Automatic annotation (TrEMBL):
Residues 361-373, 416-425 have a biased composition (Low complexity). This is Transposase. Residues 394-415, 448-463 have a biased composition (Pro residues). It comes from the Bacteria. Residues 361-463 are annotated as: Disordered.
Length: 463
């Protein structure tokens, strides 16, 4: 994988991809590891490394993101699974995270690969998938969001926040140490490209002033004896092996002889320079000690989940998915049968055994305990339709309504007697004969005489 951008300065926005190697691709003695890749806004590869899938690997990833982006919160992260310890800790810390399935990860590895880079095309599959995930974030094919923290890690939010603060402080202390050495001890920067490494810090703490290894030719033998004594002392303290410490001391001695001494830093300031360098080194070491204490606390409470090989690993070994699922169904049936002999919860235990069988390819030993999983969800393989599922059984009898405490209410008796004493009629009443009219007819009315004719008109009598 290309390393041409390893020495670039820290960027404002970076993208990180995390990919796991299949168990068939690594020896059985090797632990669970993840490959991390960091790219910038233009998709250029900045860093690729392997980290362990535990609390120490999480601390290494946080330090890498702080170094490249100025803080772990300024980097979006994409992973191929949320069942890893590192991804669970990232979710618990509130970091933006994107999860992609196996098919999408393989597609991103092919789509966002740099065809012009022969070294990148010949890199291991895990590195190509990690780079593909990082560039998928950079291109917008994936979107990182804040995922809910796992239930068993929700109480470690404060610990993870404190670790992030110490990681940022350690980066600032390392920058301050570099600037102090640039002004007061330039030979140290020539000897050590990264003066904040543990071996470099130990040598600078033992030799904080260039005059301790410099001098005339007459003092050359004395300087050599002093350098050997310091190297032996550091090796006895367990900082590193004797050969590595001798190389570090020799590199500093050669750099001091090749670097001209500045006139401003005279012998009157020797003690002040030595004390300043020691305090700058101590500030970096203090942050390292705090981070180590928090990581040790997390390691004692967080266990690494056991990853079962899935379809991708089976395809690379030449096995078929049907064989894997058949073994899974067999394991599930055995688990359900054993649970049925235990008690009334046999049905639910059988279903749990079925789900567990999807995660294991080979039957587990009889006395082995199941490994605790830290991820929020598992990724089971599909089960064919011919695998029978254990039928659930009721845990207890069905619920029965309790007896009433008081008798049901009764309507009160009427206050007035009924209008009819007899029994109520079952049919509608019929209409009887009409009553005689009380109004006289027209024959009974009196007849009045016609009015007299008007004057001058003689009435005509009827014939």
């Amino acid at each position: 994988m290309s390393r041409e951008e390893d020495d670039a300065v820290a960027l404002v926005r970076v993208y990180c991809g995390l990919a796991s190697a299949d168990p068939a691709d690594r020896p059985a003695s090797a632990g669970s590891t993840l490959t991390s890749a960091v790219v910038d806004d233009a998709g250029r590869l900045l860093h690729v490394c392997e980290i362990s899938d535990d609390a120490a690997g999480y601390a290494q990833l946080v330090a890498l993101l702080v170094e490249r982006s100025g803080g772990p919160s300024g980097a979006a992260i994409a992973a191929d699974s949320d069942d890893h310890t590192v991804t669970s800790l990232l979710s618990a810390a509130g970091r933006p995270l994107a999860i992609a399935d196996d098919d999408s990860v393989d597609d991103f590895a092919e789509r966002f690969a740099d065809d012009d880079s022969l070294e990148e095309m010949q890199s291991p599959p895990a590195e190509r998938r990690a780079v593909g995930l990082a560039r998928a974030l950079q291109a917008g094919a994936l979107s990182a969001v804040t995922l809910p923290a796992p239930r068993d890690l929700a109480g470690y939010k404060q610990v993870l926040s404190a670790h992030a603060a110490l990681a940022s402080g350690r980066h600032s202390a390392a920058v301050a140490l570099r600037e102090v050495l640039r002004e007061l001890y330039p030979a140290a920067l020539r000897a050590y490209p990264d003066p904040a490494e543990p071996v470099s810090l130990a040598v600078l703490d033992a030799l904080p002033e260039p005059g301790m290894l410099g001098g005339t030719v007459a003092r050359g033998r004395e300087v050599s004896v002093a350098a050997d004594a310091i190297a032996a002392h550091l090796a006895a303290d367990g900082v590193a092996d004797a050969e590595e410490i001798n190389e570090a001391v020799t590199a500093l001695r050669v750099a001091i002889s090749e670097t001209p001494r500045r006139a401003a830093v005279n012998r009157a300031l020797t003690s002040a320079v030595a004390e300043t360098v020691r305090q700058a080194v101590a500030s970096v070491r203090a942050c390292d000690a705090g981070c180590e204490a928090l990581v040790s606390a997390l390691s004692s409470r967080v266990s690494t989940p056991v990853q079962a090989p899935g379809r991708r690993a089976a395809a690379r070994r030449g096995e078929s998915v049907g064989e894997l699922t058949g073994l899974a169904g067999t394991n599930a049936g055995l688990a359900g049968t054993n649970a049925g002999l235990a008690g009334t919860n046999a049905g639910l235990a059988g279903l749990a055994g079925t789900n567990a069988g999807l995660r294991s390819v080979r039957p587990a030993p009889a006395g082995a305990e199941p490994a605790p999983a830290i991820g929020r969800r598992s990724r089971p393989e599909p089960v064919p339709g011919n695998v029978p599922l254990a039928s659930p059984r009721p845990l207890g009898p069905p619920p029965v309504a309790p007896a009433p405490v008081t008798p049901p209410p009764v309507a009160p008796a009427p206050m007035t007697p009924a209008a009819m004493a007899g029994p109520p009629a079952s049919t509608l009443p019929t209409r009887g004969e009409p009553l005689p009219s009380r109004i006289d007819g027209p024959t009974n009315r009196p007849v009045s005489a016609p009015p007299p004719p008007p004057p001058g008109i003689t009435p005509i009598a009827p014939a």
